[in-house]
Amino acid sequence: MSDKIRAFVALKLPENTVSSIRRMQEDLKPYRFPVRWVRPEKIHLTIKFFGEIAESDIKNIGAAMDNCAGNYAPLSLSARGVGVFPGITRPRVIWTGISGEASLLSALRNDLENRFEETGFKREDRPFKGHLTIGRFREKADREKLIEALRKFQSFESEIFVAGKLYLYKSDLRPEGPVYTELLSVSFNSDKITGPSPKELVIQ
After folding, report:
1. Alpha-carbon gap, residue 65 to 62, rounded angstroms
2. Cα(24)–Cα(122) distance, rounded to whole angstroms?
3. How far apart are CA 53 and CA 104, in angstroms?
4. Active site residue 143
5. Reported confidence tier of residue 194, pLDDT bands at 50, 70, 90
6. Which CATH architecture has domain 4-77+101-127+155-203?
7. Average pLDDT, rounded, for the chain
8. Catalytic position from the list 6, 19, 22, 44
9. Dihedral angle computed from the Cα positions of residues 139, 127, 79 and 95, in that order, rounded to the nearest 10 degrees
10. Structural contact between residues 96 and 45, judged by C-beta atoms closer than 8 angstroms
11. Could you give the CA distance from residue 11 to residue 55 in angstroms, rounded to a whole number?
12. What is the structure's pLDDT at 198?
């Protein structure tokens, strides 16, 4: 490892959620939007993007994650709907949103931001909106076709899954696309709930 690495904190997605997103991407492709689609297996629910950190920061980041995660039960979430950032006129990102315990997800993010700030990292001041980036626009898209697609897929929703761990990843940017390497993981406090219902999939 080099002295500096790109890193981010995220939740993993289970295979059935990845498969749902893959099918949605395939259903969107006939619209021929100028989009570079993210490979579904590369999609994570990003909580905090650090940018570059020093290798020596990993231990402190992990300790902050661990202290924070112990205060939260595993989160019941699902992918839901489709939207674009920053807006219809000149979209840059197409995403699916997060449903379920989204308020707890926001609380977790804010808690982590506070702890990371105490460790010396700059706080992200923009409001948090949990989402999964599924594609990035290369150029302006046809507005009417985009509105049609967003309306059609607003009812999209994956199965519920329960996120049991929080992960720190390293991101290596390569010509063929980013490569993500897990650096560490910490568990949420499973004693805070009785357990997921039989229809929910636990992702560790």
Report:
1. 5
2. 35
3. 27
4. no
5. very low
6. Alpha-Beta Complex (3.90)
7. 91
8. 44
9. 0
10. no
11. 21
12. 34
Place of tokens 């949103």: 97
Residue pair 172/42 in contact by the 8 Å Cβ criterion: no
Confidence of residue 1 (pLDDT cuts 50, 70, 90): very low
Judge whether 44 counts as a catalytic residue: yes
Burial class (CB in 10 A: 0-12, 13-18, 19+), 35: buried
Give the 3-state secondary structure of the chain: CCCEEEEEEEECCCHHHHHHHHHHHHHHHHHCCCEEECCHHHCCEEEEEEEEEEHHHHHHHHHHHHHHHCCCCCEEEEEEEEEEECCCCCCCEEEEEEEECHHHHHHHHHHHHHHHHHHCCCCCCCCCCCEEEEEEECCCCCHHHHHHHHHHCCCCECCCEEECEEEEEEEECCCCCCEEEEEEEEECCHHHCCCCCCCCEEEC
pLDDT at residue 200 is higher than 80: no
Give me the catalytic one of 77, 131, 132, 166.
131
